[in-house]
Amino acid sequence: MENPETIEKQPCPMCKTKNLTMMEGEVEIPFFGKTFIFSMTCSNCKYHIADVEAAEQKEPVKQTIEISSEDDMKIRVVKSSQAIVKIPHITTITPGPASNGYITNIEGILRRVKHQIETLADDTEDKDKKKKARKLLKKLNRVMWGDEKLKITIEDPSGNSAIISDKTQTTKLKVK
Length: 176
Ligand SMILES: [Zn+2]
Hints:
- This protein is of the alpha+beta class.
- It folds into two domains: 1-57, N-terminal domain of TfIIb (Single Sheet); 58-176, ZPR1, A/B domain (Jelly Rolls, Sandwich).
- The protein is 20% helix and 41% strand.
- It has two helices and twelve strands.
- Bound molecules: zinc ion.
- Residues 12, 14-15, 17, 19, 42, 44-45, 47 line the site of zinc ion.
């Protein structure tokens, strides 16, 4: 990251203690452009928000990719807090107050999804739900090893998201 700027010991909006660190910086992302990164993290209550925003104004966008190899794990993904990430038959990551924006790769997205499924499975006593979770985790592992294909779609009305690969299919997103 270029010129990261950090301000420490700020008041936290959640716990009100002065343990909040604000971070701001920018990165140049090939085929996407200059992107601002912003985050706030409280070391006391673990409050954390983060977001990304392209320097250039972007159009609402819908991008789809089919993951088919281990190499695809390295494909860069920019996901803003406004993005909806759809993985058919597995999960949908929706925007909301707890939604963060970040720069990651396909592997990072899948790891987050795995973590989400694991947490849900740990929290339930329902045997069927646990069984279903184990099945999904197995499927995700096969995808990560390149043994199974998987489609991922990102829709972002703010345009601040992208799956950066020549395999990506881009369509215009109609904003209601
Ligand atoms: Zn706090």
